[in-house]
Write a structure and sequence with these properties.
The structure holds two protein chains of two kinds. Chain A has two domains: about 230 residues, Rossmann fold; about 120 residues, 3-Layer(aba) Sandwich (Rossmann fold), CATH 3.40.50.920. In chain A, the strands form three sheets. In chain A, strands 3-2-4-5-7-6-12 form a seven-stranded mixed β-sheet, sandwiched between helices. A five-stranded mixed β-sheet of chain A has the order 9-11-10-13-14, with helices on both faces. Chain A is about 40% helix and about 20% strand. In chain A, helix 4 links the parallel strand 4 and strand 5. Chain B has one domain: Thiamin diphosphate (ThDP)-binding fold, Pyr/PP domains (Rossmann fold, 3-Layer(aba) Sandwich), CATH 3.40.50. An eight-stranded mixed β-sheet of chain B has the order 2-1-3-4-6-5-7-8, with helices on both faces. The chains are: A alpha/beta, B alpha/beta.
C-alpha cells in the first residue's frame, strides 16, 4: 500500500494486531495505553474477534494464556505498573511456550511514578522480569511506522518460536500521531500449531504445562528453552546504524531516546562533527556482535537512555572493554532533549578532538 | 452508640479535606470525603487506592488531607490499611499508643469492585477494625471512562461504547454491598451525598462498631456521566429516589432500608440528564429501557422483602 495514513501510536498497534490476525485481546485501564483497549473494544467486534476488559492486569494476561493455548493469536497491553503485575503470567507463558504479544507503553517509575515517557523497564523486559530462566523477544520501536511493522512481526515471531513477545514502547510513542505506511500483512510460512488444546477426539492429548516434578524433567525443559533462546539470538537480531563508519563517537540508544538522539546526530553531522548512532531494534536478542564489530580503541560510545543506565550494562558487555562506554540519562519520566544530547556530545568531543563549534 | 449530630454542630467542625485539590469541578468524591471526615469524632487515619481521589489530592508536595494518609497502589488499599491497623493494635497493646484511632480506606469502584476486591475481601474476613468506603462513580474515570463491574446497564463507556448495534454496557452491575454483607461483617451500608444526614449517621455508627465495616457511596462524575457540573447532588438524589441506589444498611445481618422514597420515580428521571445514556432515548431502545426498569424494580422488591423478613 502506497498511501500514508495518520494515526496515534497506540491505535496503530491495535490496528496492526488486527491485520496480523490477532483475534483475542484482554486488557485493563492504565495510562498511557488506554487507546489500545478503547480501539479494540469496537474493532474486534467488526472482525469477529474477542475483546475483554478484565478485572485486573493479572486476569487480562491469564486470559491471553488461555486464548493462546486454544491456538488463537492473542495480545494484551499495559504500562509499567500493570506490566509488573503481569510478570507471573509472563513466566508461565514462557515456561508453557505459549505465543502471545505483550505491549508495554512505559511510564515513569518506580511505584506509581508518573504517566510521562520512560525507559526504566528495560531490565524487566530484557532480563526476564518474572521468576525462572526465561527470555522473551523484545522489540523497541522508535516511530509509529515501526510500531505497525514490529507489531505484525511480533505475532509471526511469537508463533514461530512459541514464545511471548514484547513491544517495549513508551508514553510518547503511544500517544504521538504521525503518518506511516500501513503495509499489508502477508503471513509467512509458519510451523503448524500442532500443540494447541482444542479437544483430542481422534488424536493423543496435548499437554501444555509448566509443572515438572520428575527427576531432571525441569532441567530438560530448561535446556529446551535455552536452545530456543540461542536460536533466537542467532537469527532474530535487528539493529541499525547511522553515520557509523567514520564516527569517533557513537551514540547508542533505543526507542524514543534513539529518535531524539538521531535528530541531534544529524544536526551535529551537518556541522562536521564525526558522530553516529547505533540503535538496537531488538533488545532481546541484543545486537552484541554488531556492537562489538564497530568498536575499537579509537571510538567512544555514549549510551543515552531515559533511565539510570540499564541498556548501558549490555552495551558494556558487548563491547567488552574495546572502547570507552559513557552514559547520559534522565529518569523519572523526564524526556531527554536533543539540545541536552548535543551538549553532552560536544563536551565529550571537545575533550578528545578539540573540535570547535 | 454515636450521638446524632446536627448540621449546626457539623458546621463548627474543622473540614479535614482542604480545598485546592485537583478534583474536577462538580465531582462527588470530595463532597463525600468531607462528609465522612466531618462525621467522625475520632482521630482518623486514611488509606487511599489509586484513582481520581488519590492522584488529585496529593499532587507533588501538597496534600488535601489534614489527617495521616497513606497511598500504595490500585489493588491494595484494604491490605495496606490492614498493615497500618494491625501495627496500631500491636503498639496499643504494648502501651506505646493510648489514643483511640479509627481507620478508613477510600477506593473508587475500579479499585474496589474489580482489582481491589481480593484484598478487600481478605481484610474484611480477617476482621481488621476499619471502615472501607467505596466512592462509586460507575467506571474507570481516572484513566478515561472505561467500563467497570460497577458500570450500570446501558451506560456508554470508552471500552463498551454504545453504537448502532451495542447499547452500551449489556452486563449487570455487581452488587458489591451484598457481597460485602455476605462476609458477615458487622456493618455494611449504602449512602448518597444527597442524603447527608443519613450518610453522616451511617459513618458515625460504623466507626463505633468494632471490626470490619463497608460503605458504598454513590459519587456522581460529570465527565463520565456526561452531565452538568452542578448536577452532582441532584443526580445522586435521583439515584436514590428512583431506587437505582437504595439507601440501606445491614447491621449484624439485619437489613434496614433507611430511606423510602414517598413516590418511587421512574428510572428515566435518573438516566435522562446523563449523556452516557442518551442512546437509550432513541425510539428503538424502549425494550432495553424496560429491562433496566425491571431490574431495578426487582432489586427494590427483593430489598423490601429482605427488610420485612427481619421486622416481622
Amino acid at each position: 500500500m502506497k498511501t500514508r495514513i495518520l494515526m496515534k501510536g497506540n491505535e496503530a498497534i491495535a490496528e496492526a494486531a488486527v491485520r496480523a490476525g490477532c483475534r483475542f485481546y484482554a486488557g485493563y485501564p492504565i495510562t498511557p495505553q488506554n487507546e489500545i483497549p478503547e480501539y479494540l473494544s469496537w474493532r474486534m467486534l467488526e472482525v469477529g474477534g474477542v475483546f475483554i476488559q478484565a478485572e485486573s492486569e493479572l486476569a487480562a494476561i491469564n486470559m491471553v494464556y488461555g486464548a493462546s493455548a486454544a491456538g488463537i493469536r492473542a495480545m494484551t497491553s499495559s504500562s509499567s505498573p500493570g506490566i509488573s503485575l503481569k510478570q507471573e503470567a509472563i513466566s508461565f507463558l514462557a515456561g508453557a511456550e505459549l505465543p502471545c504479544v505483550i505491549v508495554n507503553m512505559q511510564r515513569g517509575g518506580p511505584g506509581l511514578g508518573n504517566i510521562s515517557a520512560s525507559q526504566a523497564d528495560y531490565f524487566q523486559a530484557v532480563k526476564g522480569g518474572g521468576h525462572g530462566d526465561y527470555k522473551i523477544i523484545v522489540y523497541a520501536p522508535y516511530s509509529v511506522q515501526e510500531l505497525w511493522d514490529l507489531t505484525i512481526l511480533a505475532f509471526d515471531k511469537a508463533d514461530e518460536y512459541r514464545t511471548p513477545v514484547m513491544i517495549l514502547g513508551d508514553a510518547i510513542i503511544g500517544q504521538m500521531m504521525e503518518p506511516f505506511y500501513p503495509t499489508d500483512y502477508k503471513k509467512p510460512e509458519l510451523p503448524d500449531k500442532d500443540w494447541i488444546i482444542d479437544g483430542c477426539e481422534g488424536r493423543l492429548p496435548h499437554v501444555i504445562k509448566t509443572l515438572y516434578m520428575g527427576d531432571g524433567e525441569l532441567e530438560m525443559m530448561n535446556n529446551k528453552l535455552q536452545k530456543k533462546y540461542k536460536n533466537i539470538k542467532n537469527k532474530e537480531v535487528i539493529s541499525e546504524g547511522h553515520f557509523i563508519d567514520d564516527a569517533e563517537l557513537i551514540v547508542v540508544a533505543f526507542g524514543i531516546a534513539a529518535r531524539i538522539a538521531l535528530s541531534s546526530v544529524i544536526k551535529l553531522r551537518r556541522k562536521g562533527i564525526k558522530v553516529g548512532l547505533f540503535r538496537p531494534v531488538t533488545l532481546f536478542p541484543f545486537p552484541e556482535n554488531e556492537l562489538f564489530l564497530i568498536s575499537d580503541e579509537n571510538k567512544r560510545f555514549l549510551v543515552v537512555e531515559m533511565n539510570a543506565g540499564q541498556m548501558l550494562e549490555d552495551v558494556k558487555l558487548a563491547i567488552n572493554g574495546r572502547s570507552e562506554v559513557l552514559f547520559y540519562g534522565r529518569t523519572g519520566g523526564m524526556v531527554v532533549s536533543p539540545e541536552e544530547i548535543d551538549k553532552k556530545i560536544l563536551s565529550l568531543i571537545d575533550l578528545k578532538c578539540n573540535v570547535k563549534m | 452508640m454515636a450521638k446524632p449530630v446536627t448540621l449546626k454542630e457539623l458546621s463548627k467542625k474543622e473540614i479535614l479535606f482542604a480545598s485546592g485539590h485537583r478534583l474536577c469541578a462538580g465531582c462527588g468524591a470530595p463532597i463525600i470525603v468531607k462528609m465522612v471526615l466531618l462525621a467522625s469524632d475520632y482521630p482518623l487515619i486514611a488509606a487511599n487506592a489509586t484513582g481520581c481521589l488519590e492522584v488529585s489530592s496529593c499532587i507533588s508536595d501538597y496534600t488535601a488531607w489534614k489527617i495521616p494518609w497513606i497511598h500504595n497502589a490500585f489493588e491494595n488499599a484494604a491490605a495496606t490499611l490492614s498493615g497500618v491497623e494491625t501495627m496500631y493494635r500491636s503498639l496499643k497493646k504494648q502501651g506505646k499508643i493510648d489514643k483511640d484511632i479509627k481507620f478508613i480506606a477510600f477506593g473508587g469502584d475500579g479499585g474496589t469492585y474489580d482489582i481491589g476486591l481480593q484484598s478487600l475481601s481478605g481484610a474484611m474476613e480477617r476482621g481488621h477494625d476499619m471502615l472501607y468506603i467505596c466512592y462509586d462513580n460507575g467506571a474507570y474515570m481516572n484513566t478515561g471512562i472505561q467500563r467497570s463491574s460497577a458500570t450500570p446497564l446501558g451506560a456508554d463507556t470508552t471500552t463498551r461504547p454504545a453504537g448502532s448495534v451495542v447499547p452500551g454496557k449489556t452486563e449487570q452491575r455487581k452488587n458489591l454491598t451484598k457481597i460485602m454483607a455476605a462476609h458477615n461483617i458487622p456493618y455494611a451500608a449504602q449512602a448518597s451525598p444527597s442524603h447527608w444526614a443519613d450518610l453522616v449517621r451511617k459513618v458515625r455508627k460504623a466507626l463505633d462498631i468494632p471490626g470490619p465495616k463497608f460503605m458504598n457511596i454513590i459519587s456522581p462524575c460529570n465527565r463520565g456521566w456526561r452531565s452538568r457540573t452542578d448536577d452532582a447532588i441532584m443526580l445522586s438524589r435521583l439515584a436514590v429516589e428512583t431506587c437505582y441506589w437504595p439507601l440501606y444498611e445491614i447491621e449484624n445481618g439485619v437489613t434496614k432500608i433507611t430511606f423510602k422514597p414517598r413516590e418511587k420515580k421512574p428510572i428515566i428521571d435518573f438516566l435522562k440528564p446523563q449523556g452516557r445514556f442518551k442512546h437509550l432515548f432513541k425510539p428503538d431502545a424502549e425494550d432495553f429501557l424496560k429491562r433496566i426498569q425491571d431490574d431495578i424494580d426487582k432489586e427494590w422488591e427483593r430489598l423490601q422483602k429482605e427488610e420485612a423478613c427481619f421486622s416481622s
